[in-house]
Amino acid sequence: MQMIAPRATLYVHVRKATLCLSMLMLLTTLVGCGDEQESLYEHDHFVPAHWPTDLQRASRLIVERVPRAMEDETARKELLDLMSWVPEIAADTELAESDWNPIFSQCEQLRRRLLRGYDTALGTELQQLAETLSVTHAELKKLQPPDLPREAESPAESAPETTADSVEVDAEAHTDNAAVDPNEST
Fold first, then answer.
1. Any residues with CB less than 8 A from the CB of 99 and at least 6 apart, and which?
2. CB under 8 Å, gap of 24 or more: what pairs does 96-99 form?
3. 97-116 and 73-91 helices cross at what angle (nearest 10)?
């Protein structure tokens, strides 16, 4: 009998320790460890003002910078940025790969030429790219389905359902009411 008591005691201690560890893990999971950042780059992440949100904005940003690029180093650097970003923005759309490939290769070619220097012929090609991006954006907009009304706003769902039986009942009720003279007392 002496052997059973130490085993039972050991079993109870192991169960208590397991329960405590489980509770500690659950609490840590629910509460967290404290001063954790959402992202490792939370304080370092910077989105430039000339980051395009879509192809239409990329087109506008290119058009705005082309006239200044001959004299303005900042405009040239921003055009270089845009040439790097446009393929990424285009890839995030519903654009088919066969339509994306020419945009990518044109941006890469223009980016390499921008690195060598800026000239008016390059400005013309940048304007053509901007026009291509604008047309592509418009085509993609046509492919998107229109926003559907929310369920609560749908007039068909808010109106009562009409069936042939309910029309007959309504017609009978209407004729019964018409036959009764409101001035007559029963």
1. 136
2. 99/136
3. 160
